[in-house]
Amino acid sequence: MTDAARARRALTVLHRELSACTACPAMIGPVVHGPPVVSRVMLVGQAPGPREGAIGHPFAWTAGKTLFRWFDEALGVPEATFRERVYIAAVARCFPGKASGGGDRKPDAGEISRCRTYLEREVAILAPDLVLAVGQLAIGEVTGQKGKLDALVGRQHRVTWLGRDVDVVALPHPSGASPWHKLEPGKTLLRQALALAEAHPAMRAALA
């Protein structure tokens, strides 16, 4: 059995366990995850929205359309190909529900911690070289840095994440709730971030 076949089998086992997880009572199932793509590039988002559970894969609604348009325009790769070549994960894998003030609730520290065990195993299986962290929560979890997107997007970060030394490219959340990526300096910083992702050797190899 090849290394890729072993990794795919390990991911399939992990996904079976993940799909059966009921560790967070406030979360709304079902668990959402992508296929067992063996890749040295991981994309990490915040959590699925209210429609992804029914559709059955991450970034399946409005924000996903924006995200994959970015990749299509900057990397020249359509959504279907990107999903086949990049492993898509998230800080939390169930819909957190709505916040009292409107919008989606952010997963709390306990929910993030319980889901992190799956991320740790995914990183151990895949040994990624490049992580695309989408949105401030994911950027903070992966890089350990919190702050304004102006200081985080548009440059490559080198960090140790879950025991693995990785390059990280931070991207703003593609949700329509924030206009950051539509205004300056967000528009320019987003272009710079996508250019860094496109030029990274791991991304080049994944999309070859």
Kindly describe this structure.
By secondary structure, the protein is of the alpha/beta class. The chain has a single domain (3-207), classed as Uracil-DNA Glycosylase, subunit E. It is built from nine helices and five strands, in the order αβαααβαβααββαα. A five-stranded mixed sheet has the order 2-1-3-5-4. Strand 4 (156-161) and strand 5 form a beta hairpin. The mean pLDDT is 96.
Summarize the model shown.
With 208 residues, the protein is α/β, with parallel strands linked by helices.
CATH topology: Uracil-DNA Glycosylase, subunit E
Number of DSSP strands?
A: 5
Strand order of the largest sheet: 2-1-3-5-4
Strand content: 5-15%
Q: Provide the gyration radius in Å.
A: 16 Å
Number of helices: 9
Supply the CATH superfamily name: Uracil-DNA glycosylase-like domain
Mean pLDDT over the residues: 96
Q: Give the helix/strand class.
A: alpha/beta
Low-confidence stretches: none
